[in-house]
């Protein structure tokens, strides 16, 4: 690495650190992690603030942070790695390994349909409880017995709360292992981050998890939305993540593969190993990378959100959105957003965390935060703007 590269990287790290400290001083954030990789090399790894709303425990690069739908990209990565290994194909029907899933005409639903949110199973039961959500067998049986809302591939609609269990049970049936174990064995372990990237957090690791707090203004705006709000039709409000939900031990320790608890460093490292090589590890081939990152449903309208479908095969295409638009994860997919860089892909969580990568520049970025804001992801947008400027 040249002296010029070192200087440029140092300036980016300093700018990200200043951004984090300014947000914390202003009271808009409590604790944050900001990580950037380029060409498989760690460029910036910022941790600032506290891991508790009113405590002294600092956020460190090792602090685990519940990050909501950010974890959908992790589940997708597990699936793509198994496809890369030849265990199944994107067009393998789920019933090949999960026969009872074929009830009510679901025999034609493939892994590709699930990853592109076109399987026709976007909604959880309106009366679902958190206890049912965290019961793997109950969720799997419910999905196996569900009636699809449309034929597979006919339409698309954000599978907000069903995505993870559809992927996860298919993976469990195909491998004989829970998806959390497959994540550790096939993705996190080879990358040296098995203790930083989780669906369900082991009990022994709970002391490392940050305690979230709800942003008062954002939380008030979100809770004032009517029951008819599109997201609540797919994921009823009693199971839509907020700080209280994300602090529950049963949520943190359960496999919910549409969510995740992680460090920004681990998430960015995973994305970096998708778009290139990290310490000798590359998760997918260049051809598979091109296929998974490209928009899968151009011109389609999302049946759940009413907005243009943004999905690639397992991720959000051209994400994050362009500067000045909304990058707020689950909330962001409920409205039109300005397209971001055409080759980037990623996934955000409703609280403001998220990650993305760009196969062209081979940059990977992750943001985790402890102040949960469902309507504002300005920190992600500011980080993205800084990184885009650094890229150029």
Write the layout of secondary structure elements.
Layout: H1 3-26, E1 31-38, E2 41-49, E3 65-66, H2 71-84, H3 111-115, H4 130-133, H5 136-144, H6 163-175, H7 179-188, E4 197-198, E5 213-214, H8 216-223, H9 230-234, H10 243-247, H11 249-253, E6 261-262, H12 264-275, H13 286-293, E7 316-317, H14 329-332, E8 345-348, E9 354-358, E10 363-369, E11 371-372, H15 378-391
Parallel strand pairs: 5-11
Antiparallel strand pairs: 1-2, 1-10, 3-6, 4-6, 7-8, 8-9, 9-10
Helix pairs in contact: 1-15, 2-6, 2-7
Please tag this protein with its features:
single chain; alpha+beta; Beta-lactamase; 15 helices
How would you characterize the overall build of this protein?
It is a single chain. With 392 residues, this protein is α+β, with helices and mostly antiparallel strands. The protein has one domain: DD-peptidase/beta-lactamase superfamily (Beta-lactamase, 3-Layer(aba) Sandwich), CATH 3.40.710.10. It contains 15 helices and 11 strands. The strands form 3 sheets. A 6-stranded antiparallel beta sheet has the order 2-1-10-9-8-7, sandwiched between helices. The chain has a 3-stranded antiparallel beta sheet with strand order 3-6-4. Strands 5-11 form a two-stranded parallel ribbon. β9 and β10 form a beta hairpin. The longest helix is centred in the N-terminal third of the chain and has 24 residues. The radius of gyration is 19 Å and the shape is globular. About 2% of the residues have low confidence.
Tell me what portion of residues adopts beta-strand conformation.
5-15%
Report the strand count: 11
Radius of gyration: 19 Å
CATH topology: Beta-lactamase
Q: Between the first and last Cα atoms, what is the distance in angstroms?
A: 17 Å
Structurally, how many domains make up the residues? 1
